[in-house]
Amino acid sequence: MEKNVHTFIGCDCEYDDSKIVLFGAPYDSTTSFRPGTRFASSAMRNESFGIETYSPYQDKDLLDVNVFDSGDLELPFGNPEGALRDIHDRTAEILDDGKVPCMIGGEHLVTLGAVRAVAEKYPDLHIIHFDAHADLRDDYLGVKESHACVLHRCWDIVGDGKIYQFGIRSGDRDEFKFAKEHTFMEKFGFFRLDSIVKKLQGKPVYFTLDLDVLDPSEFPGTGTPEAGGVTFKELMFAVEEVAKLNIVGFDVNELSPVYDQTGRSTALACKLLREILLYFYK
């Protein structure tokens, strides 16, 4: 895999030496409200050079770990299945080489492509999902491959008792009914996360983070802002807890930089990704 010349800060080691491989999935064709997440990965790479590689939270530095940024996929807009196939193939390639994939979305649908590949390698896959929205609709306006349906489609793959959702504060009635029967859902925050982490020790886990789990007062740059979210510090503590698990793949989604002209949402996303990379690096 060729080195990307436009990298996230500190993520420019050689592919063969890397343990984590980052790639962008700039796709937002099924966005149900405001588009713009296709610009997230490029914006985060650009703005990442406004932060440091060093984390004072962890006393670790991206310069001391091996992360390779393979760049953005060129995804076919208007063709969700084609985009998911390309994401699957990049994720599978990374996994086949014994590395951990890290994807920057994009709308949340992109997670499905990665989960398909990870579940092929790890049949006992579990998913931890941080989000404002349940994303459990069976279809949205007749479309099953939508960012509003992504966790339902993931459930189609992994089945009952494998999906753990936190921070959820929005969805239709049927989604919450579905969750009661098929997933673990912790509404409004990260309560009981520690007990789930203890339960999942030794299991392969995919972690998917929709940044709109954050309160829009801290993170306005998203297509579907939802009042009542968590703080940056609360999210950081939760990510630190998740890092105790066997994370075999992860993603960060739903930054839409055009809706925050101050740039603070992109800066927050960059800082958070730095911390996640350092937390999950084994």
UniProtKB/TrEMBL annotation:
PROSITE patterns: ARGINASE_1 (PS01053), ARGINASE_2 (PS51409). Transmembrane segments: none annotated. CDD domains: Agmatinase-like_2. It comes from the Bacteria. GO terms for molecular function: agmatinase activity. SUPFAM superfamilies: Arginase/deacetylase. Its EC number is 3.5.3.11. InterPro entries: Agmatinase-rel, Ureohydrolase, Ureohydrolase_dom_sf, Ureohydrolase_Mn_BS. Keywords: Hydrolase, Metal-binding. It is an enzyme of class 3 (hydrolase). Belongs to the arginase family. Agmatinase subfamily. This is Agmatinase. It comes from Ruminococcus bicirculans (ex Wegman et al. 2014).
